[in-house]
Amino acid sequence: MPIELNVNVVIFSLCEDALQVLLAPKAGQIWALPEKSVAADESLESAALGAFSRLAHSPEIYLEQLYTYGDPERIPGQRAVSVVYFALIPLDARGAQLENMQWQRLDKLPGLAYDHAEMISYALRRLRYKLEYSAVGFELLPDEFTLSELQHTYEIILGEKLDKRNFRRRILEAGIIEATPHRRSGDGRPAQLYRYRPDAVAEVKARRLFP
Amino acid sequence: MPIELNVNVVIFSLCEDALQVLLAPKAGQIWALPEKSVAADESLESAALGAFSRLAHSPEIYLEQLYTYGDPERIPGQRAVSVVYFALIPLDARGAQLENMQWQRLDKLPGLAYDHAEMISYALRRLRYKLEYSAVGFELLPDEFTLSELQHTYEIILGEKLDKRNFRRRILEAGIIEATPHRRSGDGRPAQLYRYRPDAVAEVKARRLFP
DNA sequence: AGAATAGTGTCTCTCAGACATTATTTG
DNA sequence: CAAATAATGTCTGAGAGACACTATTCT
């Protein structure tokens, strides 16, 4: 029994007021994460990109290796090792998905194949964790966004309300975004649009347990 | 050309005043990380344990999956995917190593095969990082240790001097160690021995980038 | 007595977190 | 002018970081 090597990708996107994951139908009511077998001449990362888009690398896509699952019992009847990636794509960059994959809300997930539920919950933990010390949140937003939208993104991912004035003060002091010349009109007073400064320091020093 | 799957392990230990890594001789002056091919009925983790000790799982050993390297070009002439683990073992738990592996100081590494230097430097980054928000430092010390030894461990790994009073205050307030009834006599005044409290909260909340 | 290491307390300054009102636009 | 959303500043308390001397043991 040879060992089969493939990749899975947990792709997050933000729609309205919930996080969503891209899933492919499997059998019955069971869904699965996008998956691809790794070809002999292909890197793991490009296999991961190929798993959810034949359009391959949009350079926009945030992709990061998450974990490799390789328990002999994880899939009945075969020995498969899966390198799992997680990806973030902004709502406006969602193209036409191939096959019959669908976006599903994280809070209303259907039944999932094998250990895919575990993969998703680990990816979510990692996303939340990264949000606390890096600027990964911008990967889910369009190029220009208002401060309210940004705060909303954080609130959805973290699952808690944040204080508006503290949020604005800290993110502006951090210097990782800058105002654009544009404003967005909507229901009330128009909002200043900001963009991410890619040259900004992307990580903040974690608080040490010991000095 | 089939894809070969194996594991490598970056094993750290602390000797005297330097971090060391366990290496196996390869060819000429070239050394390599302990490696093992993954058997069809074996988990990745037990393969990793098997890579550096046929005595397999001492339950003591801290083992964590690090990253999976799978670039098609990383090893000339074959396609090998390596799942890399990193391990920490205390000085007093070093048994007799099999084969002709040797402990080498991190600051005086010999030439390394393939991408193994990259694996080690990534493992070190992760170790330093984890040290800042978790209690992983104890994995390199014997069961009982003095506060000076603990501080020394931190200083070696982080590569910087720490303030004695701040260190003691914070680690004691954190409640993750407790005094034992023993003291250690040495050159000057005997020191109180402490032990790690496994029931303690092992992680400290990271400082958020945003509130 | 001297050498060596263990052990201890205070102050300052920064920053996280709580909190309510005014400003601008549209219909 | 009413409804909707944007924008803004202050105070307090906790904790990080800097800093120097006393205590105990051994030879």
Descriptive overview:
The structure is a homodimer of 211-residue chains. By secondary structure, the first copy, chain A, is of the alpha+beta class. Chain A has 2 domains: 128 residues, Nucleoside Triphosphate Pyrophosphohydrolase (Alpha-Beta Complex), CATH 3.90.79; 74 residues, Winged helix-like DNA-binding domain superfamily/Winged helix DNA-binding domain (Arc Repressor Mutant, subunit A, Orthogonal Bundle). Helix content of chain A is 24%, strand content 32%. The first copy, chain A, is built from 4 helices and 11 strands, in the order ββββαββββαβααββ. In chain A, the strands form 2 sheets. In chain A, strands 1, 2, 3, 4, 5, 6, 7 and 8 form an 8-stranded mixed beta sheet that branches. Chain A has a 3-stranded antiparallel beta sheet with strand order 9-11-10. The longest helix of chain A has 18 residues. Chain A is elongated, with a radius of gyration of 19 Å. The mean pLDDT of chain A is 89. Chains A and B meet through strand 5, helix 2 and helix 4 of A and strand 5, helix 2 and helix 4 of B. The first copy, chain A, binds a DNA duplex (27 and 27 nucleotides) through helix 4.
Produce a short descriptive summary.
The structure is a homodimer of 211-residue chains. The first copy, chain A, is of the alpha+beta class and 211 residues long. Chain A has helices at residues 44-52, 116-133, 147-158, 164-174; strands at 4-15, 18-27, 30-32, 35-37, 62-69, 80-88, 102-105, 111-112, 144-146, 177-184, 191-196.
